[in-house]
Amino acid sequence: MIEVKELTKSYGPTLAVNNVSFNANAGEVVGFIGPNGAGKTTTMRILTCYLTADTGTATVAGFDVLEHAIDVRKNVGYLPESAPLYADMGVVEYLKFMAEIREIPKSQRKERMRTVVDICGLEGVIQKDIGELSKGFRQRVGLAQSLIHDPPILILDEPTSGLDPTQTIEIRNLIKDIGQEKLVLFSTHILPEVAATCSRILMINHGQIVANGTLEELVNQVRSENILHVAIKGTEDEITTKLRQLEGIIEVTPVSTDNGIVRYEIASGQDISDVSSTIFNAAVQNRWDLVELNQESIDLEQIFLHYTTGQTRGTHPPPKPESNEDVDSTEEE
Amino acid sequence: MQNINIIFKKEFRSYFNSPIAYIFITFFLGISSWLFFQTFFFGNQAEMRGFFGLMPWIFLFFIPAVTMKLWAEEKKMGTAEILMTLPIRDYEVVIGKFLASFGLLAVSVLFSIAIPISVALLGDPDEGTIVCGYIGLLLMGGAYLAIGLFASTLTENQIIGFIIGITICFVLLIIGTDYVLFSAPNWLYPIFSYLGLGVHYSSILRGVIDSRDIIYYLTIMGFFLYISTLMVESRKWR
Q: What residues 63-82 of chain B have any CB closer than 8 A to a CB of chain A?
């Protein structure tokens, strides 16, 4: 439904979007994450035909964003960052205006408006002017506006910013629901949000896509070796020597000794469960008291840091992702 | 047409949702009536030439104030981003907004009908010139509005839009006035006297509506609305 090929856009000397390519289809919730100024908003603006790319092509719902801008816009619901709305309009008046301009037939207008009011939880504020609403409710009105014509593609720029935790969860669930049949592309700074809602993650940094895949795929790309944290009661030297002899273990680093309990960081190239059982068996054989045995989990924060700064705690410099190789030569910095 | 109508309704309502329309109508009528009746009784003639003569100068300050928010505010508040990603064409938005401001002007001018009625009660004015005067007023007002709208597309600061609007209107107005025309080089004289914003209005005020005068104002409106559309589209220039 969205096909982006080699999109590039610069503002004067600043390269905002650099050779970005990706595809996204119906039934997907694509989380667009990256640091401030990474090019998320610019990419979304190009896809909604608000701006034009310098080079490259983008097709949305089968229509080229340059040639058939009106058709693209008909198929897209868009909520820009910080939900800019007309403060002097009433909530109902605003939704009615949107319904009219979205060419919803008069007979269905009321029903559609009621549906989006329900979905976005606006019952309590329909009498009010938008200018009187809190940030969270404005955000919801913005979302209602983007949903009013039931678009096949929803593009949301930081839809949960300014919402309280309950609202955030509601909106995330809503996004998930919509993503069952439609395509939702949304940007965010909040990493757990991506893990909670997205079926796919697009990570962008300095205008380039640095990672594209499911959370699992990204975790596996980042993890070049598995790290286990082990705590064993006993003599440090003896245990260290024996651990080093075990199969599949690359490195054993004693971290601390405390009351006879030695903590280790163990790096391994093997599957994490195999290594765990190897260590467990060794402990049983040598009659060690195994106090702790757990796997270091790599979370989205680390993946994010890995791709945006090239650093990950606890791992050696990881291989560059394939998607990055062809664009490296064009990088400006 | 449908889209233009929707934008028109939204913008027109927005004038009346905010204090702008009421302030504009009150001050426009108040100031123009006061300035007019101040000298009206000295002349001892039941005519409205004084009223119409004031209008190019009153419009100079009032009209850019009406149009300054039309684009500048959209850009400042970011609402342009939703508006310009709706399935409508840029020119439809430009025309809709122009018509809304024209609607506000027409309402204000309609209220000023109290003035010719008062004049008619006091004497026997020439209805023909008054009707022509009102037609001229709307045509010239439309030209001012188109210029003001264009000025508003240039900036996201309403005050700057206002001042640019006044400046363009002022320059176009004074090049048609006698003191500029007399001091202008000969070759510029026909150009200036054709382009002057008030020149065609004065000729309409004489009670004759010439198609050339109408064409002039329609051209000015069309030209400034066209370059406004270009400015709105300029965000997409590569």
A: 77-82
Helices (H), B112-210: 114-122, 127-153, 158-174, 178-183, 189-195, 199-205
Distance from CA of B50 to the nearest CA of A (A): 38
Instruction: Answer whether residue A84 is part of any domain.
Output: no
Q: From CA A1, how far away is CA A38, in angstroms rounded?
A: 23
To 10 degrees, the CA torsion angle through A164, A168, A169, A173? 150
Q: What is the 8-class DSSP label of residue A17?
A: E
The reply to whether A67 and A157 lie within a common domain is yes
Q: What is the domain extent for residue A240?
A: 224-295
The CATH number covering residue A259 comes to 3.30.70.100
Q: Nearest CB to B14: which of A70, A88, A145?
A: A88
Residue type for position B31:
I
Of the three residues A163, A185, A220, the one that is the final residue of a domain is: A220
Kindly report, residue by residue over A169-210, the tens digit of the pLDDT: 888 888 888 888 899 999 987 777 887 888 898 988 888 888
Q: Band of the pLDDT at A298, cuts 50, 70, 90? A: low
Residues of A in contact with B78 (CB under 8 A): 80-82, 84
Number of domains making up chain A: 2
The answer to whether residue A328 scores a pLDDT higher than 60 is no
Cβ-based neighbour number of residue A173 at 10 Å: 12
C-alpha torsion sign, points B32, B34, B37, B42: negative
Query: Could you tell me if A52 and B234 are in contact, meaning their C-beta atoms sit under 8 angstroms apart?
Result: no
Question: Two tokens at A133?
Answer: 């609403």
Does residue A49 belong to the interface with chain B, where contact is any CB pair within 8 Å? Answer: yes
Cα four-point dihedral sign A304, A310, A312, A316: positive
pLDDT for A52-83, tens place per residue?
999 999 999 999 999 999 999 999 999 998 88
Question: Dmax over Cα atoms in chain A, in whole Å?
Answer: 82
Same structural domain, A229 and A208:
no
For tokens 């064009």, the residue is A330
Is residue A290 domain-resident? Answer: yes
